[in-house]
Design brief:
With about 240 residues, the protein is of the alpha+beta class. The chain is about 35% helix and about 20% strand. The protein has five helices and ten strands. The strands form three sheets. Strands 3, 4, 6, 7 and 8 form a five-stranded antiparallel sheet that branches. It has a three-stranded antiparallel sheet with strand order 2-5-9, with no helix packed on it. Strands 1-10 form a two-stranded antiparallel ribbon. Strand 6 (about 185-195) and strand 7 form a beta hairpin. Helix 3 packs across helix 4 (about 65-90) and helix 4 (about 65-90) runs antiparallel to helix 5 (about 90-115). The longest helix is centred in the middle third of the chain and has 24 residues, at about 90-115. It starts with 11 loop residues before the first helix and ends in a 9-residue tail after the last strand. The mean pLDDT is about 95.
């Protein structure tokens, strides 16, 4: 799973899964929906820090995006979005949606507060898309889609990067480099494919940080599909102290 600090929790298309007309409303009311995703995540970060990480705010970077947090983020984003739409037009239809998504956001947040926040011991951040190039080789011309993922000392893999794409001419092979390794990692994995929806692990053991991957003359291998990042190793819950009367 991705970490809270890996990037935007939800996507525009995931919002559209709840509201099929959200793009049309955003265009009509001139609302930047992408910015609402960012603002909603900032609000969640403030609430999580105040409730769970007040003494150690940096621990938010070890929080995992579990399904309740993801739902909370989507509902909070839509609540903010329809609040702005209503304040622009005072349209009761927007008001109803604003109230409904506020209710759903409160419901999702209550689950997070009751069950706790999933945490990892050593946070491995999401990798940036790998830097791609070519070198002389014997492969045919092809398009390659590539992702990188950092690996920690314990073998845990962080959230894989977004895709990068390379058009390699004939008589060349792709080269991938994961640049700027964070201090928490010791190596990286590379996932490569010739189809955008099917990239596979190419290395049998983590590639040392600072070392490039070059496709061998034998071509790509059918390794495992890219994962989704670190799973929680424990849950941090709110301490509830019952005062003695």
């Amino acid at each position: 799973m991705a970490l809270f600090t890996d990037g935007t929790i939800s996507t525009l298309e995931e919002l559209r899964g709840y509201e099929s007309a959200v793009y049309d409303v955003a265009s009509t009311e001139r609302i930047d929906l992408s910015q609402k995703l960012v603002l909603a995540q900032q609000e969640l970060g403030i609430e999580l820090t105040s409730r769970f990480f007040r003494e150690r705010p940096d621990d938010l970077g070890r929080a995992v995006i579990t399904p309740p947090i993801q739902a909370w983020h989507r509902f909070r984003t839509l609540a903010i979005f329809y609040r702005d739409a209503y304040n622009s037009q005072l349209n009761d239809r927007y008001l109803n949606k604003w109230c409904e998504y506020e209710r759903l956001a409160k419901w999702a947040s209550s689950i997070v507060f009751d069950t706790g926040v999933g945490m990892v011991g050593d946070a491995i951040p999401k990798a940036a898309p790998p830097v791609l190039s070519t070198t002389a080789g014997s492969a045919d011309a092809a398009m390659y889609w590539v992702r990188a993922a950092w690996v920690g000392a314990s073998g845990e893999e962080g959230c894989p990067s977004d895709l990068n794409v390379l058009s390699a001419p004939a008589s060349t092979v792709p080269v991938a480099e994961a640049s700027e390794p964070p201090c928490a990692v010791t190596g990286w994995n590379v996932y490569v494919g010739t189809a955008v929806d099917d990239v596979r692990l190419q290395n049998s053991s983590p590639i040392p940080a600072g070392t490039s991957w070059v496709m061998p003359g034998s071509g790509l291998v059918a390794g495992k599909a890219a994962g989704k990042g670190q799973a929680p190793s424990f849950h941090k819950r709110i301490d509830r102290v019952i005062q003695r009367g």
